[in-house]
Specification:
This protein has twelve helices and 58 strands. With 994 residues, it is mainly β. The strands form 15 sheets. It has a 22-stranded antiparallel beta barrel. A five-stranded mixed β-sheet has the order 5-10-11-8-9. Strand 17 and strand 18 form a beta hairpin.
Length: 994
């Protein structure tokens, strides 16, 4: 414009400058250090320039985590980093998520990365396992206690060379979390930031249910039949046994009821037993529109000699399933001060209280009676209990083994209550010895992570037609972490720098576990363990100590060559007495070749090669032989009818688990090579990493012959390896005063293979049923689905019988769970004052067992089952062959009559392979739009709207969210049968700063 007086000059990777317009203007742009010399937090809280690292790390800033108001750290990271796989179990508030970095290393142990918050490790794994994960409720990971609103940045140390200083606990990688500290706040007055958001959740996807056929079998109405192969709903009034238009015992008693039919469950509930036939959308009506209210307030200030930050946060979420939800309250205080020229000190503390209300999934889960409900049955309208008997169930089918959905949410409850404190305090002495090329930092840090979680599972009086039960489990964990470090920096010459670090770490952890079980309530109305007639109680106490000594040597030459070496020795109390001390080294090298004058140019402005090698272990838990109190059951008896004490007499038998006195820690050897490129001063950035991990001496249970007197031996055996390819591309094509657009791709290909198991062990079951199951087997990927297959000929073609139905074949591996690759796409567009951001997540390849669909087809409640029975005839849906009289094979052309559709789906329900589906998907993880509605020096208000987890495409295409699965352990993401569903979220929020 002709009235303009200034000109803004900018370029990617350079600091923008504004100059006065003149006939001749000379502008020299300075390098933007934030872009090219980014500083990241590495192991033991060491801050380093990212360019100086010889291994791969990736960081995510706090605003990226909360741009779509995510209340869960795991979900906030999805699609934003490479090399990290996150498998959520469902869309329920507080649901568990399995997170691994560069694949799994332990067959049956913990593969969760170490979480380090403000320099101190904290617990992040689930305290309890869902075991085979075919019954019961989920158990949350302790990472659920972290509020993303408190996070300033996250740095992910992916390889063992990056995390080696943390020793054995970091064999699975490290998530380093730096919380808001007030260091960047303004001086003079506190900065106050208020965030609040309201979101609404709905079921992300559901099966396609048919609306034509009623409950029953072979065309006849059956009011207690679990199947929907009855007459057409429109013909129910003409049913010979229950129709109001026909002569039957009910019309004999009540007279004819034209256009209606008799429903026994309505009579049992005290309602008018006659109903007009109609279609009910039972699944849709069962789920709620859930709401999550998330708010936080932060007060921060920088002072002359320090800073502080105080925050309060709360998350109150209801679930889409009635009676579920989560309430979490966080309080955090951090402060640091410079006492004098040499001494500084600081502390931070976090208090968390949370309550998670859950429901069950899988075999005894509520989805079995929601999704399986006939379209003709009024699931939500007919009371779920008998009139006058609220503890006797009344639903469309028998409830042996599980409960009616509405009765369950009223009578069964599953809760987790946690109180937790974690934090640390430090004192640091720093001196430069009166020079400019020497610096010494001596630091002592003492941290604690203490929490108690109470798990209460109540199966109400009347559960599964019985008298109910209560289980109260309590986990109390106290961990103390003492860390002493000495860091010495010496600028030897203008071109050569040396850094040396020595540290001593003492970790003491005590865990107490109590499990009180009360079975068979004496009377209804009081679902409490004190009302139980049979009690069982278990209590364990485990204490362990680790003493670590470590050292780190770093050399840099000409800001071009960076060498780093570490060594750590851990002495662990949880291993056999003569096998407790272990030493692990690591070494890395980074070479910035663009520092060579001959290679400097305006296109490739930064180029680095890096290589690293590391070893690290993972300790097991060893116990000398011990005795336990037995319980006996079997035959025609349910449960354990013989329990001690019996008649005042106690009994003890040797434990069936024997520990190898020569037990060694699991050993991981990691090799990594990678490159980092920046073109046109950061306009385009490319990062590639290849890593190989060889893991041997796995610790797991090996079955023993009964003649030994033991059941299993805990020993070393087996190995696994991982090849990982990670590729990140970042592009910032537009960067002007009013428009800024950047986008990035995060590509991961992680191939995890089981090389061998222990002698005599062919497989390890991770969970599921006997058929199908999730397992590990030598030579296969980690893990696989195993179960009954289709019969195939030598050519691999499925073979059908004379009726055109597939034949049940042998038990074998049915598919690899892990994907071929994952690709995340992130973008942000700032257009004047508007900011639009989005995250897409693509998973390609891999399978999962989705047993819900095949079971619903068998029940006859799916649209697919209705379509097939309405056809005159159809062929088996996959390519198959039939066997001819001479033993040869020809393409299948045997038509199955529509009237035989039930036989078809019945056959498929007996073949596990029919329930195995490709699990590829494309999700819009996040999309958010924000706008600063007020931007004054004294007050800033930003409004935003967002959506999360919108399923755009799924290979399964059967109404099951490919991320809804069972298990919070190593089978997570592999197995689904009436799992609780995933959710999509939509909401809005405000950020106020003053």
């Amino acid at each position: 414009m002709s009235s303009a007086k200034t000109l803004q000059v900018s370029y990617i990777g350079m600091v923008a400058q504004e100059v006065v317009i003149a006939p001749n203007v000379k502008v020299i742009l300075k390098t933007d250090a934030e872009v090219l010399d980014e500083v990241v937090v590495t192991a033991m809280g060491i801050s380093k320039e990212k360019k100086a690292l010889g291994y791969a790390v990736q960081d995510v800033k706090g605003d990226k985590l909360t741009q779509a108001s995510s209340t869960n750290l795991a979900s906030a990271l999805q699609g934003k980093v490479s090399g990290v796989e996150i498998s959520p179990s469902s869309g329920m508030p507080g649901a568990s998520s399995k997170m691994t970095i560069r694949g799994s290393r332990s067959f049956t142990g913990d593969n969760t990365p170490l979480y380090v918050v403000d320099g101190m490790p904290i617990s992040s794994s689930a305290d309890l396992s869902t075991n085979n994960s075919v019954t019961g409720s989920d158990y949350a990971n302790r990472a659920v206690d972290i509020d993303p609103n408190d996070i300033e940045s996250i740095n992910i140390l992916k390889g063992q060379a990056a995390s080696a200083l943390y020793g054995m606990r970091a064999s699975n990688g490290v998530i380093i979390i730096t919380t808001k500290s007030g260091k960047g706040a303004g001086q003079g007055k506190p900065d106050v930031t208020i965030n609040t958001g309201l979101s609404f959740d709905k079921v992300s996807t559901m099966p396609d249910f048919q609306t034509e056929f009623a409950q029953g079998f072979k065309g006849a109405f059956g009011p207690t039949d679990s199947r929907s192969w009855g007459p057409k709903i429109s013909d129910l009034a003409n049913d010979p046994n229950y129709g109001g238009n026909t002569q039957n015992k009910y019309t004999d008693q009540f007279g004819k009821r034209e256009g209606q039919y008799y429903v026994p469950q309505r009579a049992t509930a005290g309602l008018d037993p006659w109903a007009t036939p109609r279609v009910y959308n039972n699944a849709k009506d069962f789920f709620n529109t859930a709401a999550t209210w998330n708010s936080s307030v932060n007060v921060a200030q920088s002072l002359d000699k320090g800073s502080y930050s105080f925050s309060l946060g709360n998350t109150n979420a209801s679930g889409i399933v009635p009676s579920t939800g989560m309430d979490r309250y966080n309080a955090k205080m951090t402060a640091q001060t410079q006492l004098n020229k040499n001494w500084s000190t600081g502390f931070n503390g976090n208090f968390v209280y949370s309550k998670i209300k859950k429901q069950t999934g899988a075999n005894n889960g509520i989805m079995a009676t929601v999704y399986g409900a006939p379209a003709s049955y009024d699931l939500g309208g007919i009371p779920s209990f008998v009139e006058g008997q609220p503890y006797k169930q009344n639903t469309y089918r028998s409830t042996g083994g599980f409960d009616g959905a509405y009765w369950a949410v009223d009578n069964n409850s599953f809760t987790e209550r946690t109180q937790r404190f974690f934090g640390n305090a430090f004192a640091q002495y720093s001196t430069k010895f009166g020079t400019e090329n020497h610096k010494l930092d001596v630091k002592y840090q003492l941290g604690v992570d203490a929490y108690t979680t109470n798990y209460t599972d109540i199966w109400g009086y009347g559960h599964s037609n019985g008298t109910g039960s209560a289980e109260e489990q309590t986990v109390t964990s106290n961990e103390m972490n003492s860390l002493f470090t000495v860091a010495y920096d010496w600028k030897i010459t203008q071109d050569l720098d040396l850094n040396f670090l020595y540290g001593n770490e003492l970790v003491e952890k005590a865990t107490k576990y109590k499990d009180n079980i009360g079975n068979n309530f004496n009377f209804p109305g009081w679902n409490h363990i004190s009302n139980a007639s049979v009690y069982t109680s278990i209590s364990t106490y485990h204490r362990e100590r680790t003493v670590g000594n470590f050292a780190n040597l770093s050399l840099s030459y000409l800001n071009m060559l960076y060498f780093n070496a570490t060594v750590r020795n851990d002495i662990v109390s949880s291993m056999p007495r003569n096998n407790r001390s272990f030493t692990y080294p690591s070494v890395s090298l980074g070479f910035i070749f663009t520092e060579l004058e001959a290679l400097q140019n305006d296109v490739l402005t930064f180029g680095k090669l890096r290589v690293s090698y590391a070893e690290v272990g993972q300790a097991g838990t060893y116990y000398p032989s011990y005795y336990r109190t037995p319980g006996y059951g079997g035959g025609f008896s349910s449960g354990t009818p013989i329990q001690y004490p019996l008649g005042g007499i106690m009994a003890f038998t040797p434990s069936s688990r024997l520990y190898d006195p020569s037990l060694r820690p699991q050993n991981t050897r990691s090799y990594e090579i990678g490159t980092d490129f920046a073109f046109w001063n950061g306009l385009v950035s490319l990062n590639y990493t290849y890593s190989r991990q060889n893991v041997k001496d796995q610790i797991f249970e090996v079955p023993l012959a009964a003649s030994t007197g033991y059941g299993v031996l805990v020993t070393n055996g087996g190995s696994v390896h991982t090849n990982a390819h990670e590729f990140t591309v970042s592009v910032n094509p537009i960067k002007t005063k009013n428009i800024n657009w950047d986008f990035a791709f995060n590509f991961s290909k992680i191939d995890n293979y089981v090389d061998k198991l222990a002698p005599g062990v062919s497989s390890i079951m991770l969970g599921g049923f006997v058929d199908p199951q999730v397992r590990l087997s030598a030579g296969d990927k980690f893990p696989v689905i195993y179960g009954t297959s289709y019969e195939r000929n030598d050519n691999g073609d499925i073979v059908v019988d004379k009726n055109g139905l597939p034949i049940k074949g042998e038990d074998r591996v049915l598919g690899n769970v892990s994907p071929d690759f994952r690709l995340g796409f992130n973008t942000a567009l700032e257009l004047y004052k508007f900011r639009l951001s989005a995250v897409l997540d693509w998973k390609q390849g891999g399978v999962m067992y989705a047993g819900t669909v095949s079971t619903l087809d068998y029940y006859g409640v799916t649209q697919k089952s209705a379509d097939y029975r309405n056809m005159e005839s159809f062929l088996f849906e996959k390519y198959a062959v039939k066997q001819l009289a001479d033993g040869s094979y020809a393409p299948n052309d045997i038509n199955i009559k529509g009237s035989a559709a039930y036989d078809y789906f019945d056959r498929l329900s007996t073949i596990s392979e029919a329930g195995v589906f490709g699990s590829s998907f494309l999700k819009l993880r996040e999309i958010a739009l924000s706008y600063p509605v007020l931007n004054k020096s004294f007050l800033k208000v930003t409004a935003n709207v967002f959506a999360r987890n919108i399923l755009l495409w799924s290979e399964m295409n059967n109404g099951i969210d490919p991320e809804s699965s069972q298990g919070n352990n190593n089978m997570a993401g592999a197995f689904e049968r009436f799992s609780l569903p995933g959710t999509s979220s939509y909401g809005f929020g405000l950020t106020v700063k003053f």
